[in-house]
Amino acid sequence: MKRITLTQFLIEQQRKAYVTADLRLLIEVVARAVKAISCNVAKGALAGVLGEAGSSNVQGEAQKKLDVIANEILLQANEWGGHLAAMASEEEEGIWKIPSDYPKGGYLLLFDPLDGSSNIDVNISVGTIFSVLRCPRNTIEPNEASFLQPGNTQVAAGYALYGPSTLLILTVGNGVHGFTLDREMGSFIYTHVDIRVPEQTNEYAINSSNARHWERPVRRYVDELQRGSLGPRAKDYNMRWVASMVADVHRILTRGGVFMYPVDERNRSQGGKLRLMYEANPMAMLVEQAGGAASTGHGRILDLQPERLHQRVPVMLGSRSEVEIIEAYHREAAASGG
Ligand code: AHG
Ligand code: MN
Ligand code: MN
Fold first, then answer.
1. How far is CA 218 from CA 134, 211, 222, in A?
2. Domain end (from 159, 192, 225)
3. 20 to 30 A Cα–Cα from 311, which one of 185, 186, 242, 275?
4. In a shared domain, residues 187 and 228
5. Residue whose CA is closest, atom 3 of ligand 1?
6. Has residue 198 been placed in a domain?
7. Does residue 236 share a domain with residue 182?
């Protein structure tokens, strides 16, 4: 079988006008950074990259060494190429300005450098998530407000999954495409053509240790799944929770199902657990591009107007019909007073 590299794939996307030359370069640079992160993740204890960094990020979360390493790799790889106006990261409080000695481009890059940090030290899959926006026209010096655009304006989104193999899953608004890292060759090979979320599902993903904190519609939905063949859904479901969003979403893109991180009693004041701009939005674009749906429970994630860079949101995504049921339960609960 003829092997198509990520570079060839992107050049063809450029010929078909799905990406500009600068966006192609941006994605290539992210892919290069992902290879470097993959090497660090794979070496683990041999490279001394496991464990705590001894610092915390703007969200008050303790940083792992790999959170810091992955963040630095992405920032350094992307700041000099001339394709970006600015960057934003889970691990940086403010936006990352392009140093004045480098040229600036027209795109904004946001990322979660290392997703699923709690899994690093137990050798379970982790990932990187990224989102690309256009810098608003006539911006001389981008600021945080330049980034606050709804997810439906993303021009590209993707994730890397550092699992048994390293995958890069990408959308430029033209379906979802997957590439596997060939470590000997050092290149990403197009292996997953036009990924679609299967509509039929018997799997769901939620951290059910939080069940007592959930709102009524989420309890109702999960309770019905758990009642299996004896309940209203009349079939048995299986539950999976990796606790790396990238791995959980990748399973959904592969086998269908639904992933939920709802707002609950503990995270209500923050609006949820997962971050809108570099977790929920890119994953929502990918899932929609693969024929699925992504909602807060009350509406489409991609239509939210962000108010803050590190804003958090409830996330329910996966097979379209399941997300529609979850939204219907939220509407019914609201109509009957919560
Ligand atoms: P991060 O490691 O970037 O902070 O993200 C972790 C997120 C997400 O990947 C995962 O779905 C969720 O947190 C896991 O949460 P619990 O620890 O509550 O299961
Ligand atoms: Mn994350
Ligand atoms: Mn992270």
1. 35, 9, 6
2. 192
3. 242
4. no
5. 115
6. no
7. no
Integer Cα distance of 122 and 86 in angstroms: 34
- Assigned domain for 174 exists: yes
Residues framing ligand 1 (Cβ under 6 A): 61, 90, 112, 115-118, 207, 243-245, 261
Say if residue 173 is in the same domain as residue 51: yes
Asked whether residue 120 is assigned to any structural domain, the reply reads yes
Residue-wise pLDDT for 104-154, tens only, equals 999 999 999 999 999 999 999 999 999 999 999 999 899 999 999 999 999
Kindly tell me if the per-residue pLDDT of 15 is higher than 90.
yes
Buried-exposed string 155-185: b where 16+ CB fall within 10 A, e elsewhere? bbbbbbbbbeebbbbbbbeebbbbbebeeee
Q: Which domain holds residue 232?
A: 203-335
What are 52-102's pLDDT values in tens digits?
Answer: 999 999 888 899 999 999 999 999 999 999 999 999 999 999 999 999 999
> Looking at ligand 1, which atom is closest to the CA of residue 261?
11
Residue 240 has pLDDT above 90, yes or no: yes
Question: Which domain CATH number covers 128?
Answer: 3.30.540.10
Q: What is the C-alpha end-to-end distance of the chain, expressed in Å?
A: 55
